[in-house]
Amino acid sequence: MLTISQLAAYAGVTVAAVRHYHRIGLLPEPERDRSGYRSYDAAAVVRLIRIHVLAGAGVPLAQVEDLLDAGAEEFAEGVRQIDRRLRAEVRELRGTRERLARLAAGEQLALPASVVGYLDRLRSLGVEERYVEKERDAWIVVAAQVPDRIDAVIAKKHEDLDHPDVLRLYGLLSGALDWTAEDPRVVEVADILDRITTRAFESGDVGGAGLDDRVVALLDAAAARTSPAAERLLVLLAQRGWKGITRVEPIPATTERT
After folding, report:
1. Domains of the chain and any CATH numbers
2. What's the pTM?
3. How far apart are CA 246 and CA 112, in angstroms?
4. Cβ neighbours of residue 57 under 8 Å, at least 6 residues apart?
5. Geometric angle at alpha carbon 156, from 151 and 161, rounded to 5°
């Protein structure tokens, strides 16, 4: 006969674990002898080892008792059920890890892959990170507004990047956050935007379509606050017949231009 310490040692568990199994009913607790000690037989050793093996294999303690007392077929089906549960938990954990990775990446948490790829392309072109972050924030809003169209919009943006005017524009805008209103490069930006917008309207490709008016106003206001040169750029664009930033529109002929 064995003491509780000897029983625990045989099974490779702690005395505290044995007492826990007693409390939850997994391991029957023998009566004390006349000296006040509990004595365990070989059957207790076998049962404790089986409990330890099942628990170590990931079987919840609430299911261990059912498996201990199950026949061969019932035991096999019980193990298969546990395996299915563990597989589901693994998939869930993988999904959680992927979400955490996107959270660490920042952009990928709130943006579709197409927009992330576009922003990465801007970086590869040497566009300053501060400017990329401003554009990223705008795309987060746009993607939320038109999720079904965002991939097509980004595909067109990639096409636009193949044009010299657009490449030159991004080369200028990359450092525009530090420009003063009097910086002569503001005029060049206005001229480039005039050419780009004219071509877009001539081809019927109008930017900002599908966005709510309030969202357009919100994005335009944010863009106007990006640098001291932004307000002057809006004035220069108005002189060339255009209004707006997110959704550029021609100024009606009856409207007096600044």
Report:
1. 4-103 (1.10.1660.10), 109-250 (no CATH)
2. 0.56
3. 19
4. none
5. 125
